[in-house]
Design a protein that fits this description.
Oligomer: single chain
CATH topology: Rossmann fold
CATH architecture: 3-Layer(aba) Sandwich
CATH class: Alpha Beta
Distance between the termini: 28 Å
Strand order of the largest sheet: 1-11-14-8-5-2-3-4
Number of helices: 9
CATH superfamily: Vaccinia Virus protein VP39
Helix content: 25-40%
Shape: globular
Structural class: alpha/beta
Order of helices and strands: EHHEHEHEHEEEHEEEHEEEHEH
Number of strands: 14
Length: about 300
């Protein structure tokens, strides 16, 4: 279960429940539907072009657990706006930042789409480098109840495939929508150590915007780079702790479905391909079935609160 201070009770700092008074299970059943069905009709069709979208069910569950209606949610690397859309559908307000201007424009259109469907929260998006989040959103210092985000994974596990039978120009397999951009400044294109250093700066900046007993939640999973397994959740935890944050919980948000007691595999083509290649080399690899949900609070809050 969670061991969080309740953001709605700053004086007592209650332990053992979320801001909404909910005790979360250690495993969240967020993959009961495939991503495409979770997004169908709720997001614009163009949104599928983004290579690394957070599952809407993960965003919705986390926002509902760690915030109250009317509170503010931030995603500093918001992609096509999943965090923002799910927040405003739940009556929260939301702000986001996105490095790629075309994805920021998609987020804006997804916000309008959600509001046309009756979402009651307000949202805004800025295009820019989230390493400057405290400057971009300086007016929000001490206002943010929840930061929900995910680091980019590069092109290793994302993208769409099309076979020759589906019109792939005669190629056996055609890979598309697997690049965040061609801008070398995008953290998604950096070496893992550079990516993590930049992500640490982003987390540090977000921590400065949190209200007392606010929460930073990061969804992340291990990845393989050139066959080597990278413990990305562990590495993210290390950079977060160097940024003045404390890990208060680690949950599993399922990417697979659960049906009649069995898991329903929803791994992508590329995840399955990498798994088969690893096994062919004698490496006991498995396809990823969940995201780690890492929950952080600031060290100052946990050491008695901010004045």
């Amino acid at each position: 279960m969670t061991t969080l201070h309740n953001s709605g009770d700053h004086g007592a700092g209650r332990i053992g429940c979320t801001a909404a008074g909910e005790v979360l299970p250690s495993v969240l059943a967020t993959g009961q539907q495939p991503s495409r069905l979770q997004r169908k009709g709720r997001y614009t069709e163009e949104s599928m072009r983004h290579p690394g979208k957070m599952l809407p069910a993960i965003a919705s569950r986390v926002i509902a657990a760690f915030t109250q209606p009317g509170e503010l949610v931030l995603d500093p690397m918001c992609g096509v706006g999943t965090t923002l859309v799910e927040a405003i559908h739940l009556g929260r307000d939301a702000v986001g930042m996105e490095y790629e201007s075309d994805f920021a424009a998609m987020t804006a259109r997804n916000i309008l789409h959600a509001q046309a469907q009756g979402a009651t929260g307000t949202a805004r998006i800025l295009a820019g480098d989230a390493r400057n989040i405290t400057t971009a959103y300086a007016a929000l210092r001490n206002d943010v109840a929840l930061v929900l985000t995910s680091p980019p994974y590069g092109s290793y596990t994302h993208g769409h495939v099309r076979s020759a039978r589906q019109g792939g120009d005669g190629a056996k397999v055609e890979k598309t929508n697997h690049r965040y951009s061609r801008d070398p400044g995008n953290l998604a294109h950096q070496r893992i150590d550079v990516l993590l250093d930049g992500f640490g700066r982003i987390l540090s900046g977000c921590g400065e915007l949190l209200k007392p007993y606010g929460v930073i939640a990061v969804t992340v999973r291990p990845i393989r780079v050139n066959g080597e397994l990278i413990d990305l959740p562990g590495r993210v935890t290390e950079v977060a702790e160097r940024s003045g944050l404390v890990l208060t919980d680690r949950l599993a948000a399922l990417l697979c479905g659960v049906r009649d007691g069995d898991l329903v595999n929803r791994a992508s083509f590329f995840q399955m391909l990498e798994t088969r290649r690893a096994r062919a080399k004698g490496i006991p690899a498995c396809a990823t079935a969940h995201e780690d949900l890492l929950v952080f609070q600031t060290a100052s809050d946990l050491n008695g609160g901010r004045g």
